[in-house]
Batch of 4 targets.
Target 1
Amino acid sequence: MKANLREWLTQVPGMSRMLQRVLIPFHDSAQYWERRYRVGGSSGAGSYGRLAEFKAEFLNAFVAEQRVECVIEFGCGDGHQLSLAEYPHYIGLDVSKQAISLCRETFGSDDTKSFFLFDPESFVDNQGLLRADLALSLDVIYHLVEDRVFHAYMTCLFQQAKQYVIVYSSNDGNAAASSPHVRHRRFTSWVEVAAPHWRLSRHISNRYPFDPKDPQETSFSDFYVFQRVEVTAKSDALLPPQFGEERCSVL
């Protein structure tokens, strides 16, 4: 009965977002996504329809052209975007136990894919057991509202990549947030300061740029492709105050 009522309410214009705020109160990033998936929510509109197809088209072509053998994704979500992917080998991480369960149900028999529960503030991989040619972050960064979580996540993202990092996100720290679980940042500023061994090699604008009249089929996210480079001098810079007080060097 409750499930049927919830399904009916989501068909009422404007009711879906209102219902989501009632069912999924925001306390912190990790709890929000766990709760969202447990009440039947998805990874979001960006993982479905033409936006998902746009992302898959670019990523599949990149993996093929660059002969990427292994991909690690920080924030695999419900796995729907992954269902469109053509990666030789894949490692999916997520902060939500329910999301990992959904991916296990969908891809459990696929021996080219592995999934792990992820806590960015507790993640340590000094032996590089989970390093991959390409690290992905798709529609995640603007959901990291806490500074400490953002910093820990970005550090893990770049540390686990051998050759490339691809981020699909907004990159405007002045953009207004539409929900409590959204915080836009100029994340490329973090990379410039905290990841001296990486440079931005490509920026691909979204085929369907955000339109407030059609938020389900458009997006404020673009693709940002970073490539590892050699640097002659070791960076010893401190992160700006908004990134926290820790000294950071992502090698």
Target 2
Amino acid sequence: MKVSGIRVELTDACNLRCKHCLRKQARPAQYIPIAVIRTLIAQARPFGITEVGLTGGEPTQHPQFKEIVNTFSRAGYAITLFTNGADFGRAYKIISGARNNLREVRLSLDGAQAETHDKNRGKGSYAQVIEAAKICRSAGLAFSLNTVISQLNKSELAALARLAGELGSRAIFFSHLQLTGRPLSHSLALSPQERLRAERAVRNLQKQSSAGKIYLCAGAYAQNPVLLCPVPLGSFYADCKGNIAFCAMLSSLDLPLNGSQLISNLRETTLAAARRKLLQRYALFAHDRMRDFFSRRLKLADHFPCDWCLKYFKKTNA
């Protein structure tokens, strides 16, 4: 499978304290060095990679955010910025200077009304993300919405899709939260049966929608559990320490990267070597998944790929 892009965690720092966050947020903030960014860009060229996603934490909190955006822009990358929108007025001034290389802004919206969204992300955060969407629309910047389905918003999926259309969003992406740490402690997780109902609701919206596109993200129910998740093979993921991780979906949890999920560090090895090691690790991963399938160890929850991986990498007790 061709590597189509890079996702880079610029920092684990954040200006919100969301209940569904995968981090405890008690440790000192870390920021990826510019030198590692430049190494990543140089070593990614032979792979023909043209897209980068800037994530966090909250990526706009990196003290050198402007320099990072400009560095990727000058290298010709199509940039997607994943942001909570809480400091978007400042961020907009930075990204607008690289708008020719800005693919889109991806805004986090977890409720169709302020009460729902703010219950998860903090008072006033709904107004901030709505304002960020309006700034994008007024400036002609493409933007989409990211929604994590939880007990708080499971009844608002249709309203969220409508709101996305009203705001002028290109699309809305629905995903399941990870069953670990804070989401479990705040009782936000849906049961496997509830997640199936939520997915059916989203698929019905896909058929009915006349506005923007509606997507279910990686981690949705797989009818055939033998089909392996393609996320680890389709992109590189670098965290704020310069680590190349097996998968972006599970690397930023309360627990650190363990030996089986940590592929390498860009300070110690090349991206090409990391790719070879990742392919070897994926072969073992596929073998173990098939072992569980043929030994009939898979339960309903294991049809959701991230659930099985959380257990496989020993990152949850759920």
Target 3
Amino acid sequence: MAADPHIGTLNEAHLHASLKELVSEPGDRFEVRVDRFVVDILRGDLIVEIQTRSFGSMKAKLHALLATRKIKLIHPIAHERWIVKLARNKKETDTRRKSPKRQGLEAIFSELVSVPDLIDHPNLEIELILVQEDEIRYHDPKKAWRRKGWVVQERRLLDVLDRMIIRSSADLFSLIGSDLPVEFTTADIAKVSGWNRRTAQQAAYCLRGSGAIEMTGKQGNAIIYRKTADSPQNSSSKRKKKGTTRSETGKTRKKKQATSKKTVTRKTKTTPRKVSSRTASKKRATRKKSPATKSS
């Protein structure tokens, strides 16, 4: 592997360096400046970026580079993690325990909420790597009060369990499952996938942001979604909705006709009264004038 003079590798985290070694190929160039950014790997015209945490921190970089370049984004997800606490003093020893928290490939949604508009970008490909890792922590009483002073120093790669490529929102739907109804809520996503409700909500947010699904209404407080892509199911549901709209329009027309008939009837009833009153007033006026005419 040919390496260029690079920036930042001296302070590179263990997990980041391990993943770079895992995905690199002969001829790759490392830490290369492209436009106004430094990229992890440049493979011909392809940029390979390794992002171990928040996609939000590289949002501007992605938008700028994707306009003219193809990018492969590498993201690790810790399926199993061991917490290693370094000794606080010479009297103590390091401890290591397994974290009860486990993540699956669906954890990608918690990162994609920062860039949902890029999910279907033709120049972007995301590779998910499911890993086992050690999380190294050291004690600093002035920091991380929620962890009682234990600060994360770094993450170390132990093993790779699985890999998956995300090229479009269709690949994200494959994570959810194929049993989603035509119209669905986040509760349906959670039920079909087996995820918790928060992950289901993140998935809906990402898919809506990418334009893959749209809102159709509400069921109580729950938003109802459906896929925007044309499909036989969607077509049949559209036909049903059009039929409903026509019947509703017919009912509305009947109501309008009935209302107009009532109005005409009321007018015809009141019209004779008005005519008769005018006629009566004319007759009274004529009677008043008639004596005066005779006397003259």
Target 4
Amino acid sequence: MSTQSTPATATEQPDHETVWVRDASGNLKPKQLRSAEVYKLYPLKTAEVVSKKTKLRIVQAGEWLHDWKPAQSLINGLFRRKYVYSLTAPAGSGKTAVALTIAAHVAEGRDLGDHVTTDGRVLYLAGENDGDVMERLHMMAETMQFDLASLPLDFLPFVGGMDDIKATIRATGHEYSLVIVDTSQAYFSGDDFNDNRAAKDWAQELRTLADDLPGGPTVVVLSHPPKSADRGPYVHSAAAPSGTKLMATRTWTDMTTLCC
């Protein structure tokens, strides 16, 4: 990124540029310099030259990370809080089974294999075939031998706008450690799920579940592959906005695989 200057004005000297520099109090002050001197006196690493036009500011590494804190682990080596993950595979390949298994382990505080799990309340957004989810949950309770009446696992069998969903969640007063969206297509608010621009907008909307909800939950989004997917390994990025982690892949010959 380069330092940007203001357009020439009547008071600006020839062959000079007006740059905006932060003083000791952090205020922007105009300063005229010869164009050739701008980058010599204010190299990018100083982070003190600010573009008046865009208000963008290059930040020095130490300053940028001053308030940074590492994300908390939900399931060690697999899931972190405030991250959005996409679990993508064709219908009938086991997405719901995997998601319910993850949900039950977090709600029970049971380690998932060798992965240490931090217990917490879980919300499952059952937007696709909720009757099937109920049947699977009943069978899982018998197999894993947990008490459904006391399990901190909630369901929202509702398909609607993200704002309504978040408002409903906040009204409960609960802080969720994990939110599962089943499926991305069921809750998609655009016109064409396979349109790249619409998919990007939807990804940013899903991101708000992790950013806006109390507790900063992990969000796992179940998704069907795009229509253009070939018969091979793939991940579907529509549900995973920039800065998040795709952690689920599937092949047509292997079972659903969770990876780091």
